[in-house]
Write a structure and sequence with these properties.
This protein has about 200 residues and is an alpha/beta fold. It has a single domain, classed as Glutaredoxin (3-Layer(aba) Sandwich), CATH 3.40.30.10. The protein is built from five helices and nine strands. The strands form three sheets. It has a five-stranded mixed sheet with strand order 5-4-3-7-8. It is globular and about 40 Å long. About 35% of the residues are buried.
């Protein structure tokens, strides 16, 4: 009887852990670091930026029209906030065997064409995006350093108009980072990410 109870308890614990993993991070979660291949052939982790105050982690890709529509805005976010301590870290979560346009060679081409000013990493093995709970491209997670930890302070969309940056009336990421720079919490800390589904087998 004790063995059966123990077995049920273990199963329940595993199911709970899997559910948590599937849900990904929530506001206030500690985001674990990663080591992912960059387009320059090097491996990049958050620990490589000791002077950063936080990070704008964006799951994005080459082929998705939503991601393409936001490329210039992502570049501008990096140019604006990297000098203030919040660099953009872009991660391509798609399986390149499912979507060949998102393979590393195509990532290099796209980054050169657009003049990316930030790391563009491949989620090799697709282990990182489920931890974060990313569901779309693009999907943003703003992290703030808390001692040796990175706390999630915003999750969601870049703004409220993917078609036209000039017509966006709510600049979620910009507003959230500006609030953090002032020592405040973002007034809006979670929105619905609009984009393409992440491609996996």
């Amino acid at each position: 009887m004790k063995t059966i109870i123990k077995t049920i308890a273990v199963i329940a614990l595993l199911m709970s852990a899997n559910t948590l993993l599937a849900q990904g991070y929530t506001i206030g979660s500690e985001a674990t670091d990663f080591k992912l291949p960059n387009i320059d052939g090097k491996t990049v982790s958050l620990a490589d930026f000791p002077e950063a105050k936080g990070f704008i982690v964006i799951f994005t890709c080459n082929h998705c029209p939503y991601a393409v529509a936001y490329e210039d805005r992502i570049i501008q976010l990096d140019k604006t906030f990297k000098p203030l301590g919040y660099p953009v870290i872009a991660i391509n979560p798609n399986d390149p065997e499912v979507q060949p346009k998102d393979n590393m060679e195509q990532m290099k081409v796209r980054a050169k064409e657009k003049g990316f000013t930030f790391p563009y990493l491949m989620d090799h093995g697709q282990a990182i995006y489920p931890q974060y709970g990313a569901e779309k491209t693009p999907h943003v997670f703003i992290l703030q350093k808390d001692g040796s930890k990175n706390r999630v302070e915003y999750i969601g969309a870049i703004d409220n108009n993917y078609k036209n940056a000039a017509e966006a009336t709510e600049k979620y990421v910009e507003n959230a980072v500006n609030a953090l720079l002032k020592g405040q919490k973002p007034a809006v800390n979670k929105t619905v990410a609009i984009g393409c589904s992440i491609k996996t087998k």
